[in-house]
Design brief:
The protein is of the alpha+beta class. It has one domain. The protein has 4 helices and 8 strands. Strand 6 (119-128) and strand 7 form a beta hairpin. The protein is globular, with a radius of gyration of 20 Å. 30% of the residues are buried. Pfam families: DUF6446. This is Histidine kinase.
Length: 173
């Protein structure tokens, strides 16, 4: 009887573990159409974000979290030219993507940003309250996008009062 109970517990744990893994890595992600994932950058001068004519866009997102968006694309505009016209994003930290979304390698992107080989730009500020869309472009034309918690979000999401210079959070239901 004890062996059967132990086997049942082990099998249950394995099934639960496999289920949790599937839910974290696969279940909630959906492909984002290229039309919905237009790559936009915020101009240095005031104004709404502008499309940069990215091509070969591949993007995923999940409704379960505002920071699960990831995208890969190609750009014919060199990063140096983009830097002349669009706002830099100095604290860009690419977040890892699911292993099956193999065009997005957060470690490679992070290394390129640290070395200065890639440049990061503000795509859209507060795409969701406290979350910015960040865009990074490499000299070879490869580009990447992800959502990152901004300075206002870091404070408010920790339950602290809204800092000066930050918009008030939306009313919660």
């Amino acid at each position: 009887m004890g062996k059967i109970l132990a086997a049942f517990i082990v099998v249950t744990a394995l099934v639960a573990g496999a289920g949790m893994y599937y839910l974290q890595v696969y279940a909630f992600y959906e492909d984002v159409s290229a039309r919905e994932a237009v790559i936009r950058l915020t101009p240095r001068a005031a104004g709404a974000p502008e499309a940069i004519g990215a091509r070969d866009i591949s993007a995923i997102d999940a409704d379960s979290s505002p920071i699960r968006f990831r995208a890969c694309f190609r750009s014919d505009v060199p990063p140096e030219v983009l830097a002349e016209n669009f706002r830099a994003y100095p604290d860009a930290e690419p977040l890892t993507a699911p292993g099956w979304f193999d065009c997005f390698d957060a470690e490679e992107i992070g290394t390129a940003l640290e070395s200065g080989a890639a440049l990061a730009f503000l795509g859209t500020s507060d795409i969701t309250y406290g979350i910015d869309r960040v865009i990074a472009v490499l000299p070879d034309g490869r580009g990447f996008a992800w959502h990152q918690i901004n300075s206002c979000g870091e404070v408010v999401f920790d339950g602290q009062p809204v800092p000066d210079g930050c918009p008030p959070p939306p009313e919660s239901d």
